Amino acid sequence: TPDGRVFAPPAARRLARELGVDISDVEGSGPGGRVSEADVRAHHEKAEEHDETAA
Amino acid sequence: MVVGDVTTGTEVLVVGAGPGGYVAAIRAAQNGLDTTLVDRDAYGGTCLNYGCIPSKALISATDVAHDARNATEMGVHADPVIHTDEMQEWKEGVVDQLTSGVEKLCKANGVNLIEGEATFVDDSTARIAHGGEGQGSETIDFEHAIVATGSRPIQVPGFEFEHDPIWSSRDALEVEEPPEKLLVVGAGYIGMELSTVFAKMGVDVTVVEMLDGILPGYEDDVSRVVKQRADDLGIDFNFGEAANEWEETGDGVVVTTENEDGEESTYDADKVLVAVGRQPVSDSLDPEAAGVEVDEQGFIPTDDQARTNVENVFAVGDVAGEPMLAHKASKEGIVAAEVIAGEPAALDQQAIPAAVFTDPEIATVGMTEEEAEEAGFTPKIGEFPFRASGRSLSTGEDEGFVRIVAEEDAGFILGAQIVGPEASELIAELALAIEMGATLEDVASTVHTHPTLAEAVMEAAENADDQAIHTLNR
Amino acid sequence: MVVGDVTTGTEVLVVGAGPGGYVAAIRAAQNGLDTTLVDRDAYGGTCLNYGCIPSKALISATDVAHDARNATEMGVHADPVIHTDEMQEWKEGVVDQLTSGVEKLCKANGVNLIEGEATFVDDSTARIAHGGEGQGSETIDFEHAIVATGSRPIQVPGFEFEHDPIWSSRDALEVEEPPEKLLVVGAGYIGMELSTVFAKMGVDVTVVEMLDGILPGYEDDVSRVVKQRADDLGIDFNFGEAANEWEETGDGVVVTTENEDGEESTYDADKVLVAVGRQPVSDSLDPEAAGVEVDEQGFIPTDDQARTNVENVFAVGDVAGEPMLAHKASKEGIVAAEVIAGEPAALDQQAIPAAVFTDPEIATVGMTEEEAEEAGFTPKIGEFPFRASGRSLSTGEDEGFVRIVAEEDAGFILGAQIVGPEASELIAELALAIEMGATLEDVASTVHTHPTLAEAVMEAAENADDQAIHTLNR
Ligand SMILES: Cc1cc2nc3c(=O)[nH]c(=O)nc-3n(C[C@H](O)[C@H](O)[C@H](O)COP(=O)(O)OP(=O)(O)OC[C@H]3O[C@@H](n4cnc5c(N)ncnc54)[C@H](O)[C@@H]3O)c2cc1C
Ligand SMILES: Cc1cc2nc3c(=O)[nH]c(=O)nc-3n(C[C@H](O)[C@H](O)[C@H](O)COP(=O)(O)OP(=O)(O)OC[C@H]3O[C@@H](n4cnc5c(N)ncnc54)[C@H](O)[C@@H]3O)c2cc1C
Q1: Across all residues in chain A, what is the average pLDDT?
Q2: What domains can you pick out in chain B, each with its CATH number?
Q3: Residue C176 needs a FRET pair 20 to 30 A away by CA distance; which of B120, B447, C273, C280 works?
Q4: Which pTM value belongs to this model?
Q5: Ligand 1 mean position to B422 CA, how many Å?
Q6: Which residues form the FAD/NAD(P)-binding domain (chains B, C) (predicted)?
Q7: Are strands B413-420 and B401-407 parallel, antiparallel or unpaired?
């Protein structure tokens, strides 16, 4: 979006902070790319897997 | 905790018991932190004692009288008389109930309460001077501090509040006997709310404002609805004039104003309410002693965790910057308390709603059309006028409209402006919509109870997609 | 389209111009379908002419008088007098404005309007009999039909509405001169709303109800708040009694009731309002001629696209089943119209809010705690009492509470019950929350304007997580 805004509910934004995920990196599965908690979790899991394979 | 001339310690010291401070203290205590809340004046701060609550109480009470006086069309004939002293007593009762509630809630959550004025000694110590002579002082060590010292009204040179006929908003809210003629300097939200209260009490109200209209910051078509109603109430507006000086006459004052071209005008009045804005109270605490930066205007800059430049010192509420609103203060207080408790909290809200409790009310959240454009969005606008709402007509309050600003692609809602009945309540749904990342379709597809004003929100969302039922789509 | 004694054709024939039918017709026309709307009586149906709107108008008008009469504590002294004839005139004005608005909106959207009674001939033809003698009839071919014929009040044997002292809700809403003593049979929402209106007009109101409390279907602690206020208004309740017969006396009637044990009681009254529920109007249209099934109660069963058992015939609103509410009718109307236009619409809403406009109001959406349990959830409950709300206290309306029902795991909001001021408006945020799949945290983190009643919604969400600020967490 023009101002770099991520459309995501508060609970998803908080989860991203909790998991140390930058929410603007998360691909949203909702309408218009809205990011859900599940999207954040999936992104985090993928990143961890990636870290593990990298390590 | 022992309170005396000894040094005590606390994990979290909160200075100021307004909606920023007391909310921060309660949440900190809820999170298991040993918390101390200090205030030099009264629980609830400006908001509960001299601001939000007393003003809204007088607005409601004068509304009851006004509504009854103007209901002949509905077949209701009444000639209400207002006893201002009784109205004050009732208002004080409301304030007392809420402030003593705050005290009880603090205690029930385990917050230590201290009455006194706090000053920083350094970034881990504060001195607290107890009010009254010979009350002594104490020193308190803290791990974290939350500064929530609020704001005070700006004074106009020459119109200092110590002179009896010159009123601050606080004086105006405490009036036992309304003046015959009131001059209001400033047509911001506080000036407009109080002008309306006094006009409904039957006072002859004149407003002088330096700018060229009421309620700067609101769009013209929004403030116009309020201006129209204020005109109907008989409030007399004079724009482009600054209050210059005043002078006592036999039974009142005469105030001289000056416009841009240096032309003077004079106004007779019994009292003069000066409501030209508020400024942060950061001086009371000597923040510099703790190394806390204060900007030129007196605000304490903070980051998105409400933290100042000093790691363990937070600032929330009016002292931490605009918007100077109670609910913004509380939100910051909650975030500061949670951050101190180690929670992943942040001031990540997309929007902070704001309401003006004029007649009718105004409420806004997020972006206007112009702001959306400036942010690079292609805005899509939906509107719905209350005169097309069944609920509006059936309550006899049918002025104003709901406007929703969305972005074009997915229809994400970016903002909303409402002027009309219960605007302050209706904005809640749109604030949630914005936080949730809701689209126009999400709001339009949600079933809204009939007949309610909230249907106007749904229809505005439909209108943006040319799908409104009860208004023509443009 | 030529209207006369000839056969015409239309893509969509909508029968009934209530909130189900006219909304369906407008949306069908917006979707480019050639649409014809027929009604035998009045644009706006029951809702605008004899239901939602006139009842809410009388509620608002009598509230203005009632509020002014009871504001001495606030310092407002008034002795309002109600002129019922003027109130009726005003109410009629509101109704006229809205019904003529509906007519205009239909025309502006290109809907063809026909006045007359429609009867199915088969599944693609209807006959329309024009009202009045010698007005003739016409035949109309349709590709799709939407049945929106609404409902009518249920009659109690012996208490048929043709007898003058026996009133339907419609009669009650049209009264020019209030009776001295009114007996209301039925304490459902219509009975309770109207009892309140008449009590506030100064009428001596007695309610007789077969069940053992008011407002069946609402939880006890919700209806109790309304019952208490009704008691305070002087309404006299008699539960467990069925109206059996009535008899004219010199200047009124005497009604005999019977309880379970066969014991009789008698009540004097000037008029008797029978409000024991409503039943679908499906007979008027002869649905069987089109092959459309009707169930035992007279409802037309439909699927989640509002389609009947006949492919091209849809049914919406009261005739299509519970809940018999205007906004449910409109939602179904929209879905039917969109399905006919080939859109992927469905009645997929998670919840339909409902409001009762008593004093105070009740509004609910989604599941109660009990319903959540029955559905297999482990419910998590949050509550907030209005007496702890600054806005409530400052308006003098502080009874009732907000309750939110969520599921335990993620905190998804499943339902809400509100009793208190502006409940009907406050429920909108929670309806959106449910539709969005919002969690308690989402609602609690959304900044809510201070001071508003909507803060109670936020605090109820916080309370469910033991994080409320202004009430003790359990
Ligand atoms: C007339 C009026 C109407 C208003 N209406 C609204 C409204 O409807 N909605 C809204 O959102 N906002 C409204 N406001 C604004 C609102 O009151 C403020 O935004 C809010 O009070 C800010 O809260 P706070 O906690 O930051 O500060 P405050 O409420 O100002 O509290 C600060 C507290 O700190 C104490 N303090 C200061 N220095 C020290 C010290 N050194 N030691 C100890 N204690 C100290 C003070 O005694 C005070 O109690 C209104 C304001 C006014 C004046
Ligand atoms: C006193 C009262 C208060 C109410 N308050 C509320 C409220 O606050 N909120 C709420 O949601 N609901 C309320 N309701 C219920 C609401 O009125 C109904 O749910 C709503 O009107 C249903 O809409 P509908 O379109 O299904 O039918 P209706 O509004 O009943 O319209 C049906 C229309 O079909 C016409 N019709 C019937 N048969 C034929 C035929 N064969 N040919 C042509 N025309 C025909 C009728 O003339 C009528 O105009 C109230 C009802 C009453 C009585």
Answers
A1: 91
A2: 7-152+279-340 (3.50.50.60), 166-276 (3.50.50.60), 354-464 (3.30.390.30)
A3: C280
A4: 0.97
A5: 24
A6: 11-333
A7: antiparallel
